[in-house]
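Hi support team,

I submitted a single chain yesterday and got back a structure, but I'm not sure I'm reading the token output correctly. Could someone confirm the output below corresponds to the sequence I sent? I've pasted both exactly as they appear in my results page.

Thanks,
R.
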Amino acid sequence: MSGMAISLTERRNDEGTEAKGLDLPLFDLGTVADATGNFSIESKLGEGGFGPVYKGKLEDEQEIAVKRLSKTSVQGVDEFKNEVVLIAKLQHRNLVRLHGCCIEGEERMLIYEYMPNGSLDSFLFDEAKGWLLNWPTRYSIIVGIARGLLYLHQDSRLRIIHRDLKASNILLDMHMNPKISDFGMARIFGGRHGSKHQESRRNIIISGKKNRGIYDSSRSLNLLGYLVDEAIGDSYPKAEVLRCMKVGLLCVQERPEDRPTMSAVMLMLGSDSALLPQPRQPGFVAMRGPLDRIPRRASRTRCPSTM
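Hi R., thanks for writing in. Yes, this is the structure output for that exact sequence:
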């Protein structure tokens, strides 16, 4: 790749404390600026938690995604270095690959592989594109996300909790394979295998709905009928969908000790014969009506599960 003739371990002494020990390709600012059209609006893909993300193309025609740390971000140099160290050590088919970084003057940037199909939320919450996600594709995405989390929690040399897992942080490659991105909130949990504190947002893949509460005028909740996205149609395996929904409910149990590890999640998803614990009833359900009917406080009512 062009613009990466030196590594961070070869930086001059005046920046050696920022780059020491990182054997990772280093892009110079000019190369990144040229690749992104000087960070033009046309090349901007979106806004991440710590700054904008741009699409770029290197001299060798390789496409990249550039995460440019905002100068006003609360994430400082040390946090940026930690993110570089963490991501550089993580290699998995369901994680976005880090190609290199740029540390020059006040600029702090991460250079990722480019995902041509964008983020999962752009499909789930778009009526036109949602139809492209049939059930087999959604199920493959669910399993891929779980596989990536299992690697982060247990199988990698580190123990990392993402802490900001959501549809916009799941990117899709040209074959619609999911890759987890944005480790800006990641923290190392030493000596623990498979943390139970990572809450899953898996059920939005089934429902295609954002997490904004449940509204049902009759207060009769048929979860399967309500949650399954209309874009999936009627030709889906109900038992498999129900299994995924139950696993999702287990992952967001109120008590952390009731949530399964990701290794248990993979077993539940991959085996029709695996027995699933019965999810506990939620502590409360926030019932919301249409915008013009929302009271000052969302009503909270205990509600038995109908799954």
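A quick pointer for reading it: The chain has a mean pLDDT of 76. Let us know if anything else looks off.

Best,
Support desk
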